Amino acid sequence: MFASETTALFLGRILFAYFLVAGIGVMASVRFYADLGAQADRSDPLAVNISGMLHFLIGAAIVSAHLAWDGLLAVIVTLIGFAFMLRGAAYLVVPGLVLRASTTSTARLRLSGGFLVAVALLLGYLGFLAP
């Protein structure tokens, strides 16, 4: 079974909304996320496990429904699916290592938020305007 262009559009549009809201949220609440990162090593193990499970399952669902390399939107959606799976696997397999790497500066968080918005805009263009 191969992913269709319709599946790429569907997932690309959903990921557009998620990345846009997440990016704006990080940039608007940079102090909150910096504090959260500073306390990451004291995170509740159950919350870390649930986060890993959700990341992995979302990524696995994307890759299972859409493993395609034919077109820019298809490639981006597939890579995002693999990225979610890898992040989830890391939370489940080496949570201490992932949490230690969570500490970051407010400047880096702003840059990360901007990157998420940029990816969202690309997904929005490819998902809504380019077809």
Protein described:
The protein has 131 residues and is mainly alpha-helical. It has one domain. The protein has six helices and no strands. Helix 1 crosses helix 4 (72-93) and helix 3 (45-65) runs antiparallel to helix 4. The radius of gyration is 16 Å and the shape is flat.
Please render the helix and strand layout as text.
Layout: H1 5-28, H2 30-38, H3 45-65, H4 72-93, H5 95-100, H6 106-129
Task: Give the key terms.
131 residues; mainly alpha
Specify the overall morphology: flat
> Treating each run of at least 4 consecutive H or I residues as one helix, how many helices?
6
Helix content: over 70%
The computed structural class is mainly alpha
The sequence of SSEs as H and E is HHHHHH
User: What average pLDDT do the residues reach?
Assistant: 91
